[in-house]
Specification:
This protein is mainly alpha-helical. Helices cover 54% and strands 0% of the residues. It has 4 helices and no strands. Helix 2 packs antiparallel against helix 3.
């Protein structure tokens, strides 16, 4: 019995046999390397989708765990840095800045996908438009080498 929509497992989705035949040189290479078919069916597409889900589920899960652990490390590093800044200990804050920056740089590729998050936590995001929101520190003695050229000085 055929379904009402007319689609079965053997329904051909599209046909590239005129453009890229499987018996041609490129078609043969693609068929051998990737399982290329010039006229794939619904069942072939289903098999590829299942493969993709299985193939990417593990790495994506591992990346999620990596981001979670690195984000926790960043939060801890920034919290310690923040306490040193609040205590007015400039030498300690300067020493803690490098580990906090390293923790941020490990998640930067993912954070940069979220521009608002990146702008909130990265020092290079300090521009003349948002510099007024930052309190100048009386203990500030040096310039931040990680700020871009359009950053304003707070000392």
């Amino acid at each position: 019995m055929k379904p009402a929509c007319g689609i079965t497992c053997k329904t051909v989705l599209f046909d590239f046999s005129a453009t890229l035949p499987m018996d041609g040189p490129l078609g043969s290479v693609l068929a051998g390397m990737f399982g290329y078919q010039d006229a794939p069916t619904v069942s072939t597409l289903g098999a590829y989708l299942i493969y993709l889900v299985v193939a990417f589920a593990g790495p994506l899960s591992e990346f999620r765990v990596y981001l979670s652990t690195q984000s926790s490390a960043l939060i801890k590093a920034v919290t310690v840095l923040e306490h040193a800044i609040e205590a007015g200990d400039l030498n300690q804050a300067q020493a803690l800045y490098v580990p906090a920056l390293a923790a941020y740089q490990r998640i930067a590729p993912a954070a940069q996908r979220l521009a608002e998050l990146d702008n909130t936590i990265n020092a290079r995001a300090i521009t003349s438009t948002n510099a007024s929101k930052i309190r100048p520190s009386s203990a500030s003695t040096g310039s931040n080498t990680h700020c871009s050229s359009n950053a304003t000085s707070t000392h």
